[in-house]
Recover the amino acids of this structure.
């Protein structure tokens, strides 16, 4: 039987996405990283509003799911750029506050083969804590679905505070969904334990394979999903990169094949997958078909260099190009 959280998502009016917002400044085709005092030339650049919260919100809005973002930007041009971009995508920004200090920036350097290196400066995001998120949550009237994403890019929100924020929203009737992202400190044991404790306040967990493996010591597949299920969520979905995605709930497992594509840029694919999969559940699709919808959406996103967030029609066309791709249940 499907978990009750899925029924609540189907009946939901609005999704709230709390998490990190930043500007990504990316330089491509960089042959090697420079040493201190040196300069290296790349070819191709982009400066785009990003962060897991922005990516997830834009993916949902593009598909027609009403979405409000809870987060912070700085009182600067980058902050205005993020706000304007979210608004242009149809995202409600009434929960995006401007804080003193700089908007977070990530500088990405991409090798010709696609491998990347990142440098991040969290700026005003350091001031985003549980109290601020609670205040905004209440000021915006809450929501019946709360996603908390990218918490490792919010240094003021340790797992205990994230757990309290989720628990409070859940006590108010919201379904809670967590995608922590990767721990840049490499998942030391005390962080891993705290995150697994946090999952007690999550109805749905959405790690990728490496995160699921790091959290559980399993290989990141169905065994890892089963271990995370025991921490509290009633549905665990694991994103498997170019291998597709899988889900565990109750004693059930579902698996969905990927849509192989030439990847132009895979950063943010997980957020687009999350958004499309949630949109599909909200539209009434069963878990296995929602995984397929997420895989198809993410494949469109990774193969595109611009105008990347797919519409429902584009996703359905991709699924129709290979009938019967959903498996499991
Ligand atoms: N090279 C690829 N080809 C086809 N589909 C892909 C590829 N990479 C990712 N995907 C799709 O995107 C989904 C999410 O990707 P991934 O597992 O890399 O998540 P992630 O690591 O959380 O991503 P990110 O952190 O970059 O947002 C996968 O489940 C898959 O459906
Ligand atoms: Mg991810």
């Amino acid at each position: 039987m499907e978990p009750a959280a899925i029924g609540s998502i189907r009946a939901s009016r609005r999704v709230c996405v709390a998490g990190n917002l930043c500007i990504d400044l990316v330089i491509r085709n960089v042959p090697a990283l420079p040493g201190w005092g040196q300069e290296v030339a790349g070819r191709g650049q982009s400066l785009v509003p990003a962060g897991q919260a922005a990516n997830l919100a834009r993916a949902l809005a593009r598909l027609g799911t009403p979405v409000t973002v809870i987060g912070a930007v700085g009182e600067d041009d980058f902050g205005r750029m993020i706000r304007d971009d979210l608004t242009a995508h149809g995202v409600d920004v009434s929960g995006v506050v401007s804080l003193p200090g700089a908007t977070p920036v990530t500088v990405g350097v991409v090798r010709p083969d696609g491998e990347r290196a990142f440098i991040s400066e969290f700026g005003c995001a350091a001031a985003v804590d549980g109290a601020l998120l609670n205040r905004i949550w209440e000021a915006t009237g809450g929501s019946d679905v709360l996603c908390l994403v990218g918490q490792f890019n919010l240094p003021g929100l340790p797992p205990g505070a994230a757990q309290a924020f989720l628990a409070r929203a859940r006590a108010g009737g919201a379904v809670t969904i967590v995608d922590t992202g990767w721990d840049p400190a490499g998942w030391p044991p005390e962080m891993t334990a705290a995150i697994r404790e946090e999952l007690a306040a999550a109805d749905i967990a959405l790690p990728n394979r490496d995160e699921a493996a790091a959290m559980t010591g399993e290989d990141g597949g169905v065994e890892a999903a089963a271990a995370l299920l025991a921490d509290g969520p009633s549905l665990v979905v694991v994103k498997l990169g170019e291998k597709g995605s899988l889900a565990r709930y109750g004693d059930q497992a579902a698996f969905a094949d990927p849509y192989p594509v030439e990847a132009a840029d895979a950063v943010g694919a997980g957020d687009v997958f999350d958004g499309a999969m949630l949109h599909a559940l909200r539209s009434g699709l069963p878990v296995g078909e929602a995984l397929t919808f997420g895989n198809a959406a993410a494949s469109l996103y990774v193969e595109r260099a611009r105008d990347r967030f797919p519409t429902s029609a584009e996703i359905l066309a991709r699924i129709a190009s290979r009938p019967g791709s959903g498996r499991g249940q």
Remarks:
- The pocket of magnesium ion (ligand 2) is lined by residues 179, 181, 208, 270 (CB under 6 Å).
- The radius of gyration is 19 Å.
- The CA atoms of residues 89 and 204 lie 25 Å apart.
- Residues 325-329 have pLDDT under 50 and may be disordered.
